[in-house]
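Because discrete structure vocabularies remain unfamiliar, we reproduce here a specimen of the format, pairing a chain with its fold in token form:
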Amino acid sequence: MLVLSRKIKESIIVGDQIEISILSIDGDQVKIGINAPKSIDVHRKEIYTSIQQENQSAVSTDKSLIKFIKKNN
């Protein structure tokens, strides 16, 4: 893991298209701004994890249920 120190109004560049800026610091809370192309999804980790779990659940749907739905449509 790369660890960097930044002050308010300083930024970090990831690749060629993503800029992460420190907007404010209040106690133990840091507000960041992320400037990325619309084609790149940006999520909080807990949301990303939830999306991955839902996707995995969708993929593991019982195949017999899928066949039943196809047969009855």
User: Anything to note?
Assistant: The CA atoms of residues 54 and 60 lie 10 Å apart. The two ends are 50 Å apart (CA to CA). The chain has a mean pLDDT of 91. The beta strands are 11-14, 18-26, 29-35.
